[in-house]
Write a structure and sequence with these properties.
Strand content: under 5%
Number of strands: 0
Oligomer: single chain
Helix content: 55-70%
Number of domains: 2
Distance between the termini: 12 Å
Length: about 200
């Protein structure tokens, strides 16, 4: 059951990004069995939040204060002073906070920067790019910037959604559990995600 441009706009997405992404979202939903009102509402709501209304397909790691870096990545730094050297240095920050995680090498490997968050779901880490390649027959591990293109952003979102069993969680209305599957224990933006989900449910019901 494909969604229409009018429905995507009604769910809270602005017209221009809605026009740019609606066909690609439909392709991903068709491939990954996102085909009920509950699944569609959760998929659109979470994607809307993750990508700032389907306008941003690359993680922003440019921070202007050590306090903000520490607030976001506190588990990776001893204190605020430790974060100071990463201000206005997104590459260095990515290599610090993502080293030896999700299939990445150490800081010197540059994997943290090369496999920073991209796409609707902010696909992060060499291991996650590789999983998409294995599932989809793509070559994102060697060409990670492809994930920023709208068709690839949508399809990698669908792949991540499906292999993390988000369809099953959506069937149960477990929007917070889906947030955890996507964002981890931090649960960033949980209140906005709930609000977007409620609005999407009204639209797609």
């Amino acid at each position: 059951m494909p969604i229409t441009l009018a429905q995507l706009i009604e769910s809270g997405v602005k017209p221009t990004p809605a026009r740019n992404i609606v066909d690609h979202l439909n392709a991903a939903m068709d491939r990954y069995y996102i085909n009920t009102e509950l699944r569609i509402a959760a998929f659109i709501a979470q994607g809307n939040h993750e990508s700032m209304g389907f306008t941003s397909f690359e993680e922003n790691l440019y921070y202007t204060s050590p306090e903000r870096i520490y607030a976001v990545f506190h588990s990776q730094f001893k204190n605020v002073q430790d974060a100071a050297q990463y201000v206005r240095n997104p590459r260095k920050l990515a290599n610090r906070v993502y080293d030896l995680r999700n299939g990445n090498g150490d800081e010197a490997s540059d994997d943290g920067w090369r496999y920073r968050g991209r796409g609707i779901v902010q696909l992060t880490g060499r291991g996650n790019y590789r999983k998409c390649d294995q599932n989809m027959g793509t070559n994102y591990e060697q060409n990670p910037d492809l994930v920023m293109r709208p068709p690839d952003a949508a399809m990698t979102y669908g792949d991540y959604w499906y292999r993390n069993r988000c369809n099953e969680l959506a069937d149960l209305g477990q929007i917070d559990a889906i947030t955890k599957a996507i964002n981890g224990p931090a649960m960033h933006g949980v209140l906005e995600r709930r609000q977007l989900y409620a609005k999407a449910l009204e639209t797609f019901a």
